[in-house]
Amino acid sequence: MTRLIALLLALCCCASAGATESxxxxxxxxxKGGECVKDPKWMRKNHMxxxxxxxxxxxxxxxxxxxxxxxxxxxxxASTKDNSVLGRADSFCEGCHRYEAVKIDCFECHSSKxxxxxxxxxx
Length: 123
Ligand code: HEC
Ligand code: HEC
Ligand code: HEC
Hints:
This protein is mainly alpha-helical. It contains four helices and no strands. It has helices at about 1-15, 40-60, 70-75, 90-100. The chain binds heme C (3 copies). One heme C binds near residues 69, 71, 106 and 109.
């Protein structure tokens, strides 16, 4: 019994020591790399609040912050394979949301592609 517990503990430790994920998330393509606009741990839990706040500031008050714009997130987080944050099981925004069963409509209006590598697609 104690051996079983020790084994389970060891497994848990190994799992949480994994590179970017800590709760069983399949590996997600982080994109270009660099440094996130806030602490990644904080971002994991709070990115939606940051985005909504930024949207409200821009749309209602005309206050822009290029660094916190959705476009800037995409510039960094779009995969280096297809320049997108959508479309695959490991795509940054979609991959994590699929896994967490979250639905967002942001990309009906906002581009999901890195602008420096515009590939003509549906529009
Ligand atoms: C300059 C590049 C860069 C920009 C700009 C950027 N990020 Fe990040 N972000 C990163 C990197 C690199 C990581 C991963 C850090 C790690 O796992 O060690 C990260 C981590 C994250 C995470 C946590 C991922 C996880 O696996 O837990 C979220 C969520 C996130 N970013 C969302 C955003 C959003 C939303 C924006 C725009 C407001 C944004 N990021 C802008 C580089 C960036
Ligand atoms: C119906 C279209 C539409 C949808 C859907 C939409 N947006 Fe926007 N969003 C806009 C428009 C238009 C602006 C203003 C653009 C400008 O002034 O640059 C904007 C501005 C923003 C901004 C501030 C400017 C910027 O470039 O970052 C953020 C952040 C933002 N939206 C986030 C979101 C998020 C997050 C979602 C999904 C939950 C979303 N939007 C869904 C149309 C939309
Ligand atoms: C590490 C996993 C992860 C990544 C990566 C991630 N998200 Fe999320 N996102 C979540 C989770 C989990 C929720 C739901 C949180 C909740 O319900 O409290 C969420 C919720 C959201 C919401 C709010 C949805 C709503 O209607 O309330 C928006 C907007 C959003 N994410 C945008 C993004 C964008 C844009 C990206 C890519 C730049 C992204 N997320 C990347 C995990 C992630």
